[in-house]
Write a structure and sequence with these properties.
Number of helices: 11
Number of domains: 3
CATH superfamily of the largest domain: ATP-grasp fold, B domain
Distance between the termini: 8 Å
Strand content: 25-35%
Largest sheet: 5 strands, antiparallel
Number of strands: 18
Order of helices and strands: EHEEEEEEEEHHHEHHEEHEEEHEHEEHH
Helix content: 25-40%
CATH class of the largest domain: Alpha Beta
CATH topology of the largest domain: D-amino Acid Aminotransferase, Chain A, domain 1
Structural class: alpha+beta
Strand order of the largest sheet: 16-15-14-17-18
Length: 376
């Protein structure tokens, strides 16, 4: 299928950095977007900042403006000016955004979503961009949706023979109607301490570690503020190991890194709000054979969840047994100046700016392949 209309010919791509969003990770997104906007090569790209407010409204910024922020260091500013509408299918694989008040029209060649969490990392935005036939960075609809849903991801990983930590799930309805049954099941099937997580959030939003039945109930109530379902996992005394994966059909794994949290676990506060909340060790100090096995497992997990473009794959390394578990696959990892994903690739020999170039190249390659598919 060929996209309608004329395709724009230009040596400079107009990159739409999409950030903010209707998510508990809105503020984290502003921080990641500042790093991406600052690192994109202005000699290769025209950079357009498109902010999405907490209500889901889009605002094209006059220009990318990075400002100081007390909590996050620096963020990409989001000014709410104009009334912008998205035309998802007008001309030649480009996304058009209009300000109906001024009549201004902006055409974007490639979308670089830096939208963490709900409505940005869960397949919904990817579906819109697929309808628009516009190239975009990151995994496609299926990979995003599955990667965001912790329960679906664990089921697929387990089916592929990849070790995962024991878990159960419960819906808001089940907790509201049968709380005792949920608590009994958790105590019967899982060993304390327990981790309680919203099913579909990232950046450790809504997660608590608990050791008693009373605290377990409070943690479930807390997690259900952020989603309609929760996951309860057995807590493992472990080291936290991370691997960055990059590629479409032939994904590659970076060197490994280790998170050394100063908090009881790698919480939202440790990640973003406490400058001393955690340290990174890159490369992780592991035997070569074990490191190779974890890197191979990262690629296998990436493939099992229909991954493409990029992901950060997180592992638990059991201190007692020496075995490892794949914890989560983050399909839109943090891109802040202190985030593990770009740091791992930098340690592997791919600097931040070149990493962004590669991600854009992967988006264009996947788009060309999809446009060659016959749909009628």
């Amino acid at each position: 299928m060929k996209p309608p209309g004329k395709t724009r010919q230009s040596s400079r791509l107009k990159i739409g950095v999409l950030y903010g969003g209707r998510s508990g990770e809105h503020d984290v997104s502003l921080c990641s977007a500042a790093s991406v906007a600052a690192a994109l090569d202005p000699k290769k790209y025209d950079i357009v900042a498109v902010g999405i407010d907490r209500d889901g409204r889009w605002y094209v910024q006059d220009r990318p403006v990075i400002v100081a922020d007390k909590a996050f260091g620096r963020v990409l500013a989001l000014q709410k000016k104009g009334t912008w509408l998205v035309n998802h299918f007008e001309e030649g694989s480009r996304l058009f955004v209009y300000d109906i008040a001024s009549g201004k029209k902006v055409a974007l060649d490639v979308i670089f979503p830096v939208l963490h969490g709900t409505y940005g990392e869960d397949g919904t935005l990817q579906g819109l961009l697929e309808l628009a036939c516009v190239p975009y960075v990151g995994v496609d609809v299926a990979g995003a949706a599955v990667g965001m849903d912790k329960d679906l991801a664990k089921r697929l990983l387990a089916q592929a023979g990849i070790p995962v930590v024991p878990w159960i799930t419960a819906s808001r309805f089940a907790w509201g109607s049968r709380p005792a049954a949920v608590l009994r099941r958790a105590q019967k099937e899982l060993c304390p301490p327990w981790f309680v997580k919203p099913l579909r959030t990232g950046s450790s939003v809504g997660i608590r570690k608990v050791k008693t039945k009373k605290d377990l109930a409070c943690a479930i109530d807390y997690a259900l503020q952020f989603d309609t379902g929760i996951m309860i996992e057995t807590g493992i005394d472990c080291r936290e190991i991370e691997c960055a994966v990059l590629g479409n059909d032939e994904p590659q794994a970076s060197v490994l890194g280790e998170i050394l949290p100063a908090h009881e676990f790698y919480s939202y506060e440790a990640k973003y709000l406490d400058p001393e909340g955690a340290k990174m060790r890159i490369p992780a100090k592991l035997p070569a054979r074990l490191a190779a096995a974890i890197r191979a497992c990262a690629v296998a997990g990436f493939r099992a969840l229909n991954g493409n473009s990029m992901a950060r794959v997180d592992f638990f390394l059991d201190r007692k047994t020496g075995g490892f578990y794949l914890n989560e696959i983050n399909t839109l990892p943090g891109f802040t100046s202190i985030s593990m994903y770009p740091k791992l690739w930098e340690a592997t020999g791919l600097p931040y700016r070149k990493l962004l170039d590669r991600l854009i190249q992967l988006a264009l390659l996947r788009h060309r392949e999809k446009m060659a598919v016959q749909t009628a």
